[in-house]
What we know:
Elements: E1 3-5, E2 12-14, E3 18-19, H1 31-43, E4 48-50, H2 64-75, E5 84-89, E6 91-92, E7 99-100, H3 104-117, E8 124-129, H4 138-150, E9 154-160, H5 164-171, E10 178-182, H6 189-192, H7 195-202, E11 205-209, H8 225-234, H9 238-249, H10 262-269, H11 278-285
Parallel strand pairs: 3-4, 4-5, 5-8, 8-9, 9-10, 10-11
Antiparallel strand pairs: 1-2, 6-7
Amino acid sequence: MQTVKLGSTNIRISAIGLGAMPLSLRGRPPEEEALRVIHRALDCGITFIDTADAYCLNEDDKHHNERLLAKALDTYLGNTDSIRIATKGGLLRPHGDWTNNGDPEYLKKTIRESFEALGGKNPLFLWQYHSPDPQFRIEDSMAAVKEAVEEGFVQHVGVSNFSVSQIERARSVLDIVSVQNAYNLWDREPERDGVLQYCEDEKLTFFPWGPLGGSRRVHQLKKIPVLATLATRKKTSPECLILAWLRSKSPCIVPIPGASRITSIENSIRSLDVSLSPDESKMIDILNKL
């Protein structure tokens, strides 16, 4: 498995991660199958898994995904010393909806709950502020996170769904090692708003969430003639092409495709064996303009 450094740290993580969200939302697989998916990812060499306290059905189900990952690690027969789990906090799930909560007191509370859900023994490897809440100053929200770092609940901090100016405001309070924003064939905002270039310049890891377009769009990839033709020529899949294309966009990118089936994670991992020429990358680049 290829590895890369997390931000400016000396910690190496797999060059592709597992997005665990599909294992806990509506339509999630039975727990035994979910555990098999996670275990297969680990068997294949993945050492980085992305989760969140809000990956659940509703508020009564909060921290479901984190507890699932903790159980997966507890029941895994292999070595888990190098496994790094990144979680997030700052969103609520009332009746299955998604709402912000950047209240500093709430963030301190949910960080401690995530700490317990993920085993309660070691600091959270990477905690990410899930989305800025306009009701609270970013500086105040991040001050609560800094307190959690100082108390030993969190090792590294990242942000998600942040603009460049918001990232800078967060960094004025504490060190940030990563940014997680939407980025895929259809959503190219990180290219336009400067976030991707900022991460590359500042040595921050960029995790593109929804790298294959999410559950509503991933199935469209096979219907794009250019991708289908290129995939056939390179003896791979359209999904692998897109993941390889994303990685070619910047050395700071680590895709975290979601998976609820073993075949999905195996296919995503095969993208690491795909290399694209500059011309092939350009062919994919312009697809969202067609």
